[in-house]
Structure formats: structure tokens, C-alpha cells
Amino acid sequence: MIPGLLSKKFDAIISDMSITEKRQRVVNFSDSYYDETGLFMCQKGKSFDFSPEGLKGKRIGVQRATTFANYIKGVYGKSVEIRDLSPALPEQAPNFPGLESSAG
């Protein structure tokens, strides 16, 4: 998204993008309009120890190029298998039973 903003494809962007030093060097951020807390999820009825030792050998789904992906790589390294959850197009996003979409 930032490359599109810098190439003037957009005048502004709105996203759940985290503020990083690298991003602050090239764009201005507004005040936060929404606070998001990262968390792990697992299937209902199952539980996991979410420590690096507890997730060793597990597959972790995370959206690429996010601060969450950087966190998983930094904390868990090669002890977990990282799977990319980023759809190529929004309409290709998975539809999970029991979860309602907020798209409108």
C-alpha cells in the first residue's frame, strides 16, 4: 500500500498498519483511530501453550509483511512452520463457518 501512496496512485490510505520507524521515514501517520491487539487463536475445544517451546513444530498462519509476521519470525524463528494467510484478492479470503464478515 505504501508504494501506491508514494507513486500517487492514492491520496491517502487507511489500514490496520502498524507504525514502524521504517514507515515513519516515508509517510505521515494520523492519530490512531482503532486499537488492535494481536492474539493467537486455535480451534474451539483445543488449547495450546503459546510459548516458543509449546508451539515448536506447529504451523502458524499469519498475514505476510505485517508486524505480526515479524513478531512470529523474531520470537519463534525456525521452530514453527509459518504459513502465509494473505489472499491475492480480498474475495479470495477464506470464509470460516461461525465467523461473520464485517465487509459491507
Number of helices: 3
**CATH fold-level label:** D-Maltodextrin-Binding Protein, domain 2
**How many β-strands, per DSSP?**
2
How would the global form be characterised? elongated
The CA-CA distance between the termini, in Å, is 21 Å
- Tell me the strand order in the biggest sheet: 1-2
Which structural class do the helices and strands define? alpha+beta
**Estimated helix fraction:** 10-25%
Q: What oligomeric state do these chains adopt?
A: single chain
Overview of this protein structure:
The protein has 104 residues and is an alpha+beta fold. It has a single domain, classed as D-Maltodextrin-Binding Protein, domain 2. It is built from 3 helices and 2 strands, in the order ααβαβ. It has helices at residues 2-6, 21-24, 67-76, and strands at residues 59-62, 81-84. Strands 1-2 form a two-stranded parallel sheet. Strand 1, helix 3 and strand 2 form a beta-alpha-beta unit. The longest helix has 10 residues, at 67-76. The model is unreliable at 98-104 (pLDDT under 50).
Summarize the structure.
This protein starts with a helix and ends in a 20-residue tail after the last strand. It contains 3 helices and 2 strands. The chain has a single domain (2-28, 38-89), classed as 3-Layer(aba) Sandwich (D-Maltodextrin-Binding Protein, domain 2).
